[in-house]
Amino acid sequence: MKESKIHQIRKIILTLLIAIIGGVVFHFLHIPVPWLLGPMISIFLAINLLQWRLKWPSSIRNSGMIIVGYTMGLSMTSSALLEMGRQLPYMLLLTVLLLLFCSMIAYIVSKISDSDYQTALLASIPGGLSQVLILAEETKGVNLGVVTLTQVIRLMMIIIATPLIVMLPIFQETGKREQTAVDSALSIATSASWEQLFPNLLLFAIVSVGMAFICIKIKMPTAYLIGPAIGTAVLQAFGIEGLHLPPSLINLAQLMIGTYVGLLLQPNDMPHKFKTLWIALGSGLMLVIGGIGLGWLLTVIQPVSKATGLLSLAPGGMDQMGIIAHAIHADLYIVSGYQLFRTFFIFFAVPPFVKWLFKRMDRRKGKVMPETDGRMENHM
C-alpha cells in the first residue's frame, strides 16, 4: 500500500511538472490564457505521444473551480444581477437556438456515421461533461464510448479555439461600459496582493467551500463552481465586500483545471479511433461556428461586445469561459449569466425531454417493425 501511494504521489508530481512546463511555454509564446491551455495541451501530448501514465486528483480540479467560482461571485453585484434578470428572455431564446443547432448537427452526424440518432444527440449536447455522461449511461442503446470521446473533443476544441478567436482584431471592439470594466479590472489586478487576503478572505473561503458541498448534496450541476459563486454573491448582498485575488492565484486555478481537462481524453477509450475522431472534430468545429454565429446575434439584440457575445454563447464549460472572460476583461456577469442559465436549462429541462423523445422514437420503431414483418409475410 505504501509503495502504491508513493507511486501515485510521484505520478501527481510528474503531472504537475509537465503542466507547469506547458504553462511557462505558452506564457512566453504569448498565447491567450496560457495557464489553462498550456497545461491542457502538454498533458494531452504527454499521454498520447509519450504514452506516459499521469495522475491528477479531481479534488485538485475542484479546488481550482472553487477559486474560479469565487471570482465569478465577485462580479455578481446587485446591478449585475438586475442586468441578468433583464437578459432572461434572450438567454432562453439563444439557449433554445443553440440546442436546436446541436440537434441538427446530431442528425447530420447520425447520417454520415451510420450511428443511431440517440448517441449522436447526446454526443452533441453542450452540457456539463458529467451531466451528459450520466444521462448517456442511463439511456439504453447509447454508445457511451462515442459520447465520451465526442464530448471531450468538443470541450477541448472550444477551450483551445475560443481564446484564440477572441484575440482576433474583429473581436477587440469594446463598448463604453466594458471599457470602464477593463480599466477598473486592470487597476484591481495590479493592486491585488497576497498580503491583503488573510484573514479577510477567511469568511469567503469558508462560505465558498460550504456552499459547494451544499450544492453537491442537492445535486446541483457544476456544484464546485456555482456554490462559491452564489455564496460570494450573497455575502456581497449583505454588504461584506469580497477581495479580488492576485493574478498568480488565478493562474494556479487555471492550471488545476487545465491539467484535469488534458487528462480526460485517454487513447484507449477511442472506439473506431479514426472515424470517430474525425466525426467528433467535425461536429466540434460546427459547434464552434454555431457559437460564433449566436454570439454575433447576441451583439445585434443587446449592447455587448463581440468577445462577450462569443464567450456567452460558446458551448464550452462555464468555468473555462469564465476564466477567459476574466482574462480578457469581458462582461463577466453577462458571460457567467448566460453560461449559468444554459447549464441549469440543460440540467433540468433537457434530460426529461431527451428521455421522452427517445421513448417516442422507440415506440415508432416498435410500430414500424411489426408492419414491416407483416408486409414481408404477405409477400412470402
TrEMBL record:
Superkingdom of source: Bacteria
UniProt keywords, alphabetically: Membrane, Transmembrane, Transmembrane helix
Keyword Cytoplasm carried by entry: no
One Pfam match: AbrB
TM ranges: 12-29, 35-52, 64-82, 88-109, 152-171, 197-216, 223-240, 246-265, 277-301, 340-358
Transmembrane helix in keyword set: yes
Protein name (record): AbrB family transcriptional regulator
Organism: Lederbergia ruris
